[in-house]
Every structure is written in structure tokens, then in C-alpha cells.
Amino acid sequence: DVEAGKKTTVTKARMSRLSDDLENAHSSSLGSCPSLRDVHSINPTQLMARIDSYENRGKKGISDVRRTFCLFVTFDLLFITLLWIIELNVNGGIEKTLEREVLHYDYRSSYFDIFLLAVFRFKFLILAYALCKLQHWWAIAFTTAVTSAFLLAKVILSKLFSQGAFGYVLPIISFILAWIETWFLDFKVLPQEAEEENRLLLVQDASERAALLQHGLPSDGQFYSPPESAAGSDEESDEKQDSEKPVV
Fold first, then answer.
1. Any residues with CB less than 8 A from the CB of 58 and at least 6 apart, and which?
2. Closest to 183 measured CA to CA, from 225, 137, 152
3. Half-sphere exposure of residue 174, counting CA atoms within 13 Å on the CB side?
4. Which of 46, 104, 114, 138 sits a CA distance of 20 to 30 A from 218?
5. pLDDT > 90: what percent of the chain?
6. Would you give the distance in Å from CA 184 to the centre of its chain?
7. Closest listed residue to residue 18, CA positions, set 222, 230, 220, 241
8. How far, in Å, CA of 129 to CA of 182, rounded?
9. Quick one: CA torsion of 122, 127, 130, 133, rounded to 10 degrees?
10. What is the pLDDT of residue 71?
11. Buried (b) or exposed (e) across 139-157, using 16+ Cβ within 10 A?
12. What is the pLDDT of residues 50-93, one digit of tens each?
């Protein structure tokens, strides 16, 4: 009987120690889970709203800053066209001046090539940055280099300065607009789009990590302690074994 009591006491001590260890593990894991959730689930509504806004920007196909650049390129063409039409009216009427500058084109005295230069910039830049959605500066560098070289050669070789104010206005305005387009694309469009793309990647990465952590965290039902009947069954088996032993 004394030996049976000792065995029962040892068994109870082992089972109590095992249950205490399981409870400690349970409490420590539950204590760590909310901290992970808090870190990766801060403001979930704002996170989802930001993801939706970036996805909507991607679905639009063209960013707002790129659309502004395309509008400025269109303004460049329309403004040069307006100045050229005014020049045609000032120098003897549209029909006569148009015939002299287009049909009898002279590089030294005609403004028609400046208008064609604006058309060239418009078509090339719209094709590259609106239709093809190019994300490099080589297209704007090419148009600006061609414009600058052509205007410099025309100012040096032509007789535009002897034809009044438009001999100064059209080349200067065309030159300035071309370089404004270059500055706007290189310092506004491309950096802002790259920054928005990096933000989208970071937000998506954070949302994926938060989703994985939320799905991977163990729930309360996954932690369980051994049933109380297990300890009782061990005790009953020990008592049966002791009772079956022959009494000396």
C-alpha cells in the first residue's frame, strides 16, 4: 500500500507539472499573437483603401502627372500653331503668306518649318509617352536635341530678325517649350511614377504579410490541455495493478 501511494503521488506530480507546462506555453503564445497582429494590422481600413487607390490608378492606364505632360505637349502644338497663324495674317493675309511660306518654301525666311517642328514633337512624344507609355527619357531627349539644333541653325543662317517681332518670338517660344517639356518629364513625371510604383509594391507586400500572419496565427481552439480523465485513468490502472498483487 505504501508503494502504491508513492507511485500515485509521483504520477500526480508528473501530470500536474505537464499541465502547468502546457498552460504556460498556451499563455505565452497567446501573449505573443496579439503583438504580431498589432504590428501588421495597424489601420487595416486605411491599408485596404490605399491598396484600392493604387489599383485604380493602375487600371486607368496613365497617371495624372503623365496626363498633364501630354496636355502640355498638346498646348505646345496649339500655341505654336496660333502664333504662326497670327504671323500669316500680319504679313499680308493668310492665303498669300501661306502660299509664299509653304508652296515656295525658303529656309531663310519661312516660319512653316517651325510649325512642322512643333507637329513633330507632338506626334513623337504622344506616341512615346501616351500610347506606348514609355518610362525613359530618351524620346524627350531626342525631340529636344532635334529642336534645339534646328532652331539654332535657323537663327544663325536665316533672315528672321529682319521680318519683325515674329522673327524673335517663334524660335524663342519653340525653344523654351521644348526644354520645359524635358524638365517636366525628367523631374516630375518619371520620378513621381517611380515613387508611386515603389509605394504600391510596399503596400502590397505589407498586406500580403499581414494576411499570411493572420491566417498563420493559431486560434484558441488549437491549444488544448490534456483531459482530466487521463490522470484519473492512470490512477485507476495503478490501483487495479496494486489490488491484483498478492498480499504477503
1. 200
2. 137
3. 35
4. 46
5. 38
6. 19
7. 230
8. 12
9. -140
10. 97
11. bbeebbeebeebbeebeee
12. 656 655 655 567 899 999 999 999 999 999 999 999 988 887 78
Mean local confidence (pLDDT), 160-186: 91
Kindly report, residue by residue over 207-219, the tens digit of the pLDDT.
666 666 656 555 5
Cell of 30: 497567446
Instruction: Specify the residue for cell string 498563420.
Output: 216
Cβ contact 143:184 at 8 Å: no
The Cα–Cα gap between 127 and 235 comes to 86
95, burial (CB in 10 Å: exposed 0-12, middle 13-18, buried 19+): exposed
3-class secondary structure, 141: helix
Report which of residues 230 and 169 the model is more confident about: 169
**Amino acid at residue number 166:** F
DSSP 147-176: HHHHHHHHHHHS-GGGG-THHHHHHHHHHH
Summarised one tens digit per residue, pLDDT across range 16-48 is: 665 565 555 555 544 444 444 444 444 556 656
Q: How far does Cα 88 stand from its chain's mean position?
A: 47
Torsion over CA: 134, 136, 141, 144 (sign): positive
